[in-house]
Amino acid sequence: MRNHKASAVVVIIIILAVIAAGVLFFYPKKSPVAVLPLSASAVDLVPQDTLLCVLVNDIETTSKNLDEFMIGLSPVPVSAGMGVKMGIISIFGEKHAPAIDTSGDMAVFAFKMAQENPDNAGPLKEIAAAAVVPLSEPELLTKDNPAVEGPDAGGIYRLTAMGQRIAFKPIAGTKYALAAAEYAGIDPAKVINAVESSDKSIAQSMDKNVLTASGQYPIWTYFDIESVNKHYGPMLEGYLQIGRGAAAKQLENAPKEGAAASQLGLKFLNNYFDLLKLFMNQGKSLSIAFDIRPDMVKFKKTFFALPDTPMASYFVEDARLLNLALSKYAAQDSFMTLAMKVDTHSYRELSSLAVDWAADILCGGESDELLKKAKKSMDDMFDSMGGDYMYSLNLGGDGGMFAGNYVLEVKDGEKYNQAIEAAVEFWTSPELLKFTEELGFKLDFAIEKDAFEIEGHPVDRAKLNITMLEQDSNEAQAIKKIFGEGLEYYWTVSDQLWLCTVGSGGRERLAAMLSEQPTPAAQPFLDALSKVVDYQTADMAGTYNYAQALLWSLDFAQVLGETEIDTSQLTCDSRISFASKFLDNGAKFEAAVPKEHIKEIVDIFMKLKELESQKKPENQPATDSTQ
Question: Which of 190-199, 223-232, 397-406, 553-562 shows the lowest mean pLDDT across its residues?
């Protein structure tokens, strides 16, 4: 048996997962297996105190859809379906392979199991893995199969495949078998016995949203944060402390001219690690489900916090529907369009938390008065907001890289404008201006009240400009490309709506918004959202063009002199659709990614790879052609 821990884990995963999909790795299921009905699912066999579980429903169809989805994306032909069949045959033999039901659902899971051998002690060596395998003809699996030994007194069979000992046991009254492979000296038969000894299944402790997803999505993964923290919390916290210390030391040793940036990075780092610790200590579970189709992949993430914890108090479900009528203000060809509810308990609590963190990072411990002003400004904004908010942001343009439309329902437009003025005063306070200069740039942000009128509506105007103190640097050129000669903002209030534009053509776009005529972008936005099941009941829904963001970053890199690439032939016309909703004690997020969008992203990376290969000969030393 191999001594290398990682190699052993990989081998075991291959053995267990190849039965299901050749390339898929799974986890936990239930316990009182002897009394389960024939209609039970694989997830009903996973024990409750499981660490991680992966479930694949209808292995054959899922594999087929994966194969079709990968056509045109992978330079190497992918055949998950063939991998499944060949994997089963390699383990059980061609004659006995039909005993495995490839139209069924399979789960692979991991749980903590104490080591009997003290020489094998260690946290990672106390993790046992097992699988729930679907059967079509249980007798065929073992009858006249020379590779199989048993059964023993407990009904467990054994075989050896790929150099590993495997144990499995068909579960009476069900269409499944439990299977386990030897790892770290743990007898796989004892792993099966440990699974059967559990008196509850993971399905019995799940939220109904999570359990429903396990049967609806072809691939479903489940992370039991509570169990992981219960068994490995001190170890994980130790790793966090090591990471925090190493990163802090690196920042502290940064050059003196970057001292301000290093301090900012250190504050951000501390807040980030505190957030990870909070997630680990107060999180209950995280599930991620995937639906792979020939033309699209969808995924859904659901997170729950432990009840009666500070984290759980942030999440409260709101039944009101999202006001998607605001989509008529969407900008054409936007990089991102987002509609969201801003009057919910969860939005306000999480936004306040984010403001506290940001204010602490920027000026914590240096100006309590400044912090009070920042929080007062945010509170006034919340008090004056109405129900919904929408923004649509473009990348590119003659007046800088950003241009967008914003619309917010307001209860008190004047109070909201006053809160904006207070926020600008915060960003232009002497303390922060001094800090930004230490970071190497200068910030200018000024508001002009009642600058002009559009159809009788008084319009406020503001201009934001950021300039690097070193004007000849690549960074200075990049900042100029982003902000141009300064980002211009125009805003006004009309019929309890706060309307705002930013970037080039803003004045004309604000006039169009005041005309209340739907933009050509409204219907495509709603059509894209329809790919996401829960978008109408969501607290937030939108579209996002990741390929366009990549092209934008490449343009930015070219200004910095880090790369040269012709992006004129690359396309970025498709978009990712997404929606999220707060639940009691948790939240869920769903997204739909068209295959076309992934193809656009792959094309961009292939272009970068091509550029890199063209550069290599220039960097290689010349060779003597006579040799």
Answer: 553-562
Q: Which domain holds residue 411?
A: 315-618
User: Is residue 180 classed exposed, middle or buried when 0-12, 13-18 and 19+ CB atoms within 10 A define those classes?
Assistant: buried
The residues with which 152 forms a beta bridge, in sequence order, are none
Query: Does residue 285 lie in a domain region?
Result: no
Same domain, 346 and 458: yes
C-alpha closest to that of 98 among 134, 130, 149, 45 = 134
Q: What are phi and psi of 526, to 5 degrees?
A: -70, -35
Q: Is the pLDDT of residue 509 over 70?
A: yes
Buried b (16+ CB within 10 A) or exposed e, 371-410: bebbeebbebbeebbbbbbbbbbbbbeebbbbbbbbbbbb
d(CA 480, CA 486): 8
Distance separating alpha carbons of residues 189 and 591, to the nearest angstrom = 41
Sign of the CA dihedral running 419, 421, 423, 425:
negative
Asked whether the beta carbons of 55 and 107 are under 8 A apart, the reply is: yes
Question: pTM value?
Answer: 0.81
Residue with tokens 């009057």: 343
Q: Indicate if 201 and 337 belong to the same structural domain.
A: no
pLDDT(358) > 80: no
Q: Contact 237/229 with Cβ under 8 angstroms? A: no
